[in-house]
Automatic annotation (TrEMBL):
Domain APO intervals: 154-239, 327-412
Family matches, as InterPro entries: APO_dom (IPR023342)
Record PROSITE patterns: APO (PS51499)
GO molecular function: RNA binding
Protein name: APO domain-containing protein
Cited Pfam families: APO_RNA-bind (PF05634)
Amino acid sequence: MDALLQRDFLLAGSSLGFVGIGTNRRVPYDKKFGYFPPHPSAPKKFCILCCAFEAPTHASTTAKKYNTHPQNVDLPPVLSKKKKKPFPIPIHKLQRAARIDKKMAHMGIEKQLLPPKNGLLVPELIPIAHRTLESWKVLIKGLAQLLTIVPVHGCRECSEVHVGRTPHLIHNCSGSKSAARRSRHEWVRATINDVLVPIESYHLFDPFGRRIKHETRFNYDRIPAVVELCIQAGVDLHQYPSRRRSAPIRILGRKVIDRGGFLEEPKPCESQDSMSLLREIDTYSVLSDRTIPPPADARRTAETTLKAYSTVRSGLRQLMRKYTVKACGYCPEIHVGPWGHDAKLCGAFKHQWRDGKHGWQDATIDEVLPPNYVWHVKEPEGPPLIGSLRGFYGKAPAVVEVCVQAGAAIPDAYRPMMRLDIVVPDHQEKS
């Protein structure tokens, strides 16, 4: 009889959608707690619990499940310059790893490192590094051409940038003597460095070699951090050589016990090819070049530039998962390598207490390639943006805003922060 009941429960439960199997003979039910488990001394017998379920069919539930991009997204908060940046990795995890390394070093056990932490290249990331560098060149070239047809304004006293023919009228200037001007901006013509903020780092022939001292800082070239990361990830440039190891380094605790010796760093190449490469990878060369032609097809150039910008960010994200990039917790200084340099150039908050030394921590992608958010202008030929309606305006990275105003389609990832679904009222309607 029990076998027949068990078979009937299994058939009924499988038809309803869910079958739960237990080992208790009976489950007394209670209205408040649902059920009470039987006493341990009670006899046990095999039983089956059957539950029926039904998939949700409400339209709002389905929309929330498959809607990957919300309607509106607020920008990340602006960090105070009087405080240290938060650690990307929680401090307790860093302290736990440091304790483990110290214990292993005390026991004489070497740290087992995987590429690229041991000085070797990662073969899977070499094509990504090449693609990122080529997209970086396309980004600089395309952005320089688009700036000839898309007007960009920058404030003389602060870092505010506006993309459009008519500068906005939002009084949020934080520069010098802004109180006397009632926080009004002093607009001038902007350059490519105002749109694509230049973040440079020292080029190292051997990232695991001698550290850069304050007295020897002029012996090293400064190149864009994106280019330096691509070089360390496997891109070979004749103008900026890099050491390629065939044997891994050995580390005991925090001390390198075998790095394969020190090699003499080659002198920088100053040929004609190096100058042409510098014009392709550095935004400062665009400032001195006054013969940049406008694009033949503005829309196609804008789409290519926007695609290159997305490729550079995705490539950086993949490379930074493996390769170490350090950032100062107080200033925008970036260093590509396993540990930061010793140049005393930090002039940020309480730098006197640190003797000008940087507070190194792991960098984020927004520190290596800052998005530089600007106000999104829905109608470039319309009236200027005003401060009373700033809550209805959206923002976007400056590169994206330039490409969109040049004719490129708005990417889905930036639609929420641009607030395209919000209707901006008139000034009289707002008041």
